[in-house]
Specification:
180 residues; alpha/beta; Rossmann fold; 2 domains; two-stranded antiparallel sheet; 5 helices
Length: 180
């Protein structure tokens, strides 16, 4: 593609990414007021990621380790999700009464109400949400953990897990839930 005019600005293929979709380095929207005064409606950052146009879904992260919660919440928000957090299963159950979640990331071992107990209550009170849960664990060697993960049949990830694996697992859960 050679240079082309877009509006009153010249376009160059140097602004394209590998997808071939034009990626302007700056997008400025100007609105004309009734008096024909130029009013700036917003800008896209010159560098960095594009602004999210809409949310991809809502995710509840349940983990008692603040560093894990911060890392997951930050990553998922940058990916375009609305993220809510709880430090144990009891707090998560209270949040489920107030909001719908598309995906639930839940640690297995937490104080007050652990992952397996949370899952048992979830199954009784919100059976449709069972298909939306992904378990996180640092304890894959324990017999109880392995037995639970095998019996519940839900996807699970070892902590820490590669980011791409987390993203793929979330996408799988979203697609599976949409088909149900």
């Amino acid at each position: 593609m050679s240079r082309a005019m877009q509006g009153n600005r010249e376009y160059s293929p140097a602004g394209e990414k590998e997808s071939g979709i034009p990626q302007p380095s700056r997008l400025e929207v100007l609105l004309l007021s009734p008096r024909h005064t130029r009013v700036s409606a917003g800008r896209r950052p010159l560098k960095g990621r594009a602004m999210t146009q809409h949310l991809l879904g809502t995710i509840l992260v349940i983990d008692d380790e603040p560093s894990i919660v911060r890392a997951l919440a930050g990553l998922l928000r940058r990916d375009g999700y609305a993220v809510f957090t709880a430090s144990n299963g009891r707090q998560a159950l209270a949040q489920l009464q107030a909001r719908h979640y598309d995906v639930i990331l839940c640690d297995l071992r937490m104080p007050e109400l652990d992952g397996p107990t949370f899952y048992a209550i979830l199954t009784r009170q919100y059976p449709a949400l069972r298909q939306r849960i992904i378990f996180l664990t640092g304890d894959t060697g324990g017999e109880d953990s392995r037995t639970f993960l095998t019996q519940c049949g839900r996807p699970w990830l070892r902590k820490p897990s590669p980011i791409m694996m987390l993203r793929r697992t979330i996408q799988h859960v979203l697609q599976t839930a949409a088909q149900a």
